[in-house]
Design a protein that fits this description.
The protein folds into 2 domains: 45 residues; 65 residues, no CATH class. 44% of the residues lie in helices and 25% in strands. It has a 5-stranded antiparallel sheet. The chain is elongated and about 75 Å long. The N and C termini lie far apart (54 Å).
């Protein structure tokens, strides 16, 4: 992730220097883009890894040790997007194909589906 951010900021700086912008404006902007990119790379590298725990369905899903409600898994082509609610706040995790192997992707899909199934008895009379 950090390599991609660094590469994009470098390409943005080169694009600023190669466009029709006057050089006395392009150079400060290119330097600003490189500094901002370096700042974002540093901030991204300092972020701690998230810990996701999907236990058996009666127990709630936990992210970083805090229980969450309503996990929803969306598949967008090769990407998996896991969304949940933590109190009133809505959060999400994005899984790229290179960060989650095929077997783990299937395991995540099955675990989220199991949490989506209601384990409570029906509330209407038989």
């Amino acid at each position: 992730m950090t390599g991609a951010l660094l590469g994009l900021s470098l390409l943005a700086a080169v694009a600023l220097l190669n466009c029709d912008l006057e050089l006395h404006l392009a150079w400060p902007l290119a330097i600003a883009v490189l500094l901002l990119g370096a700042h974002q790379v540093r901030a991204e590298a300092r972020k701690p890894a998230r810990q996701l725990l999907l236990p058996s369905p009666p127990a709630p899903m936990c992210v970083d040790g805090v229980s969450v409600q309503g996990p929803v898994l969306l598949e967008r082509g090769p990407l998996l997007l896991l969304r949940w609610h933590q109190g009133r706040q809505r959060n999400q995790l994005l899984f790229w194909p290179d960060t989650l192997p095929r077997a783990r992707r299937r395991e995540l899909r099955l675990a989220v589906r199991a949490h989506g199934v209601s384990r409570r008895p029906a509330s209407v009379a038989p």
